[in-house]
Specification:
single chain; alpha+beta; Trna Endonuclease, Chain: A, domain 1; 5-stranded mixed β-sheet; 2 helices; globular
Length: about 150
Amino acid sequence: MAIPWKLPVSQFGMDGFFHHTKTKGDLGVLKAQLDLALQGYVVSIPLTEHAPFDLVISDETTSKTVQVKTRSLDKRGALEVRLASVWKDSRGVQRRPADLVAIDLYCIYCPDTDECYYIRPCPGSKSIKLRVRTPKNGQRKRIRMAKDHREVP
């Protein structure tokens, strides 16, 4: 008997699994939940998909909203997240700048490293870029290394 919600294996190979945008996002949120819980946070999920954040974390003293993004490494070994919401509807692809007042923290999950990286968005920023691999030219100034962002700031 087939389980109605389960995709056939032929449609659920690794390539197919990581291709679907919603599935990639769900995996990133799940990885973030685990990573944040291991860091000692209580992790809560909003009751709506329309909130400007994916998670709320709290410890003994504070609560923070977290927006989770899943990104693979680019050819230079970097992760880049544009601070915007993007969706497609009958009018085509829509883009809206992220509500940085409502988002305390970005979590970037990278399936290539299987790690989460945490960074506070700067007001007025349009993107976040983290380097996983050291630049070939040895540049150090103005480079945010991902390894320095493994814990919640």
